[in-house]
């Protein structure tokens, strides 16, 4: 089966209908034991130090995996992707563009997805058949998300199991069976309820120990914003692929995204938000709007190349959690 790389979540249904094995280059990069080497290789090639580590990792992961075709999102994701495409072109990689229109208009989204289907010579019927098949797998991830609130799933498990739905680990059947086994095991667990419910929002974090660290302070991340969006938890509500990708909050304006954030904060009884931003990323400026709009304490932490929390960031998180615990005690008096 021919492989195709993606730089972020795209309508994977189209690619699967066209017979591809989809590889999320972000996942290849971040789960690698040699993830630092990916960054180093990109910098050796000429990437500046002052550039997002995710972009460097995506580039090197693509080259090291021998990917010859890539779908890149030109609108609605990283502002550096256009230049990344030029670098891929220099390496002889075949490129397919896709955009999430800034207008966030259903008709404009339909045009983009129709154009995408035309690129890969697949029909809407073929795509819809695949969509219903993989939405059954997404439903399993949604159940795991619900069990997180019941204290049976750790914050990190919630994060990684949903994150992998961007490409289903390259194999729909195997990932579906894996989730089945995981659900059986999870249901048998004794609930572990913490005093504080936290939300983690922003681009996927480089810090692999963040979820584990907060759990040392009687706290748990019960809402991983972007991985949950990658898992399309509301997919079954919609009649077609156009509506499903209209509902996807990550690539559109922040007003639409904040509506979903507010909903999840209320439903999950979230006490505080950790907003992760990536060094040199334009999305870091969204922190200003988020702090102004959300009626809940928000801590912004920034990551660059390291996959472990540094001492300063640990101190800031600990102080934030202490404050939240104090606030909770006062409100319960």
From TrEMBL:
Highest rank taxon of the organism: Bacteria
Pfam families: HGD-D
Family annotation (Gene3D superfamilies): 3.40.50.11890, 3.40.50.11900
Family: Belongs to the FldB/FldC dehydratase alpha/beta subunit family.
Protein name: Benzoyl-CoA reductase/2-hydroxyglutaryl-CoA dehydratase subunit BcrC/BadD/HgdB
